[in-house]
Amino acid sequence: MTKKDFMDHQKRVMEELNEHIQSVESFDMKDFQRVQAEIVERIAAEAEGDYQKQIDEANLPPYVVKKIESLNKVISKFGGSIGATKIERVLRFFPILVNDDLDEIEKQEAATNLFSALDDESRVGYCYWSFLECKNNQISRAVWSKILIAGHQEGKLGSLLSALKQSVVIRMFKLAEASYLMEEQEYRRFLNLPNEFTIYRGGAGVSVDKLKNGICWTTNIDQAAWFADRFSEIKGEGVVIEATVKKENIFGCFDYEDEVIVHKSFFGGCKVLEVKVCSIGIKEAAKRSQIASEIKQDKMVAESKVEMEAEEIV
Questions:
Q1: Considering 179, 207, 231, which residue would you say is the last residue of a domain?
Q2: Does the chain have fewer CB atoms within 10 Å around its N or its C terminus?
Q3: 35 and 17 Cβ atoms separated by less than 8 Å
Q4: What is the edge-to-edge ordering of all strands in the sheet holding 259-262?
Q5: At CA 227, angle to CA 128 and CA 182, rounded to 5?
Q6: pTM reported for the whole predicted model
Q7: 106 and 63 in one domain?
Q8: Which domain holds residue 100?
Q9: How many CB atoms lie within 10 A of CB 220?
Q10: With DSSP H G I counted as helix, E B as strand and the rest as coil, what are the percentages for the chain, rounded to 5?
Q11: What is the full per-residue pLDDT of the chain (314 aa) written as tens digits?
């Protein structure tokens, strides 16, 4: 059950309990506890009934129903839930995702639409379920790549993959295909990268040895400084490091935060060379990064507005 589902559930329980209290002449704790248990059980049964009813009415092939059940089971392990409130959206996209008769583009769109239809708690489980499905050749690596990068970049509070062990995340990226993991312009930039180039990574209250073993780096030193400064007041002094990486040792490069995701060696260390601490005014660089990010965001909003107005004219 997600936080929102939990809060909605609790709100309804309290509303019905309040109605019960208002309807009785005297308050009895045992009676209150009995009624509370009955309300909780009934609401849970109603939700389960609505969930199952929607699946039954969708008249899906048995194998699709089993896939939905397996997805819900994995999602629940990560603290999420499809439930009655989300099953309608799942039923809209999921059958496309697992339909072998449809082309890859339709499946990729369905996969990302399904991701968007879920909340963050459920998205983590969806990513892991998709990873297992891809490993078992049930969905293509192209579809998996789209789900993976959404999970990495579109969480409300950062990468959703941080909920997983880094060793699992590495295996996830190894299963992806670079040409689908990146957007077209990103992939062109990736192909044109030099054989070796400089990358940066920032953090706060952490040793250089630990910081250099993270897989997420950036080609933008100001962006690294932003990460170093972000939690420095809570975690401790920020630090920015730089390193050299070979093109063959990265999974991809992305416009978002100028990010580069780096392979790890068999022994667990990141495949980077010549690591050293940068001499940089972290606060000032972080401010530059923030201003640049805001300008970029404003530009994207303006471009989106123009596109929407053009569509209305057509």
A1: 179
A2: C
A3: yes
A4: 250-253, 259-262, 216-218, 196-204, 238-246, 273-277
A5: 45
A6: 0.80
A7: yes
A8: 3-179
A9: 19
A10: 65, 10, 25
A11: 445 555 665 676 677 667 767 776 676 777 777 766 766 655 555 555 577 788 888 889 999 999 999 999 999 899 888 876 678 888 999 999 999 899 999 999 999 999 999 989 899 999 999 999 999 999 999 999 999 999 999 998 889 999 999 999 999 999 999 999 999 999 999 999 999 999 999 999 999 999 999 999 999 999 999 999 998 999 999 999 999 999 999 999 999 999 999 998 765 678 898 999 999 999 999 999 999 988 888 887 787 777 767 666 65
Contact criterion met (CB below 8 Å) for 143 and 175:
no
State whether 219 and 162 are in the same domain.
no
- Identify whether residues 136 and 206 lie together within a single domain: no
Query: What does each C-alpha distance from 195 to 148, 205, 250, 292 come to in angstroms?
Result: 26, 32, 11, 28
Residue written as token pair 């880094």: 166
Say whether 19 sits in a helix, a strand or coil: helix
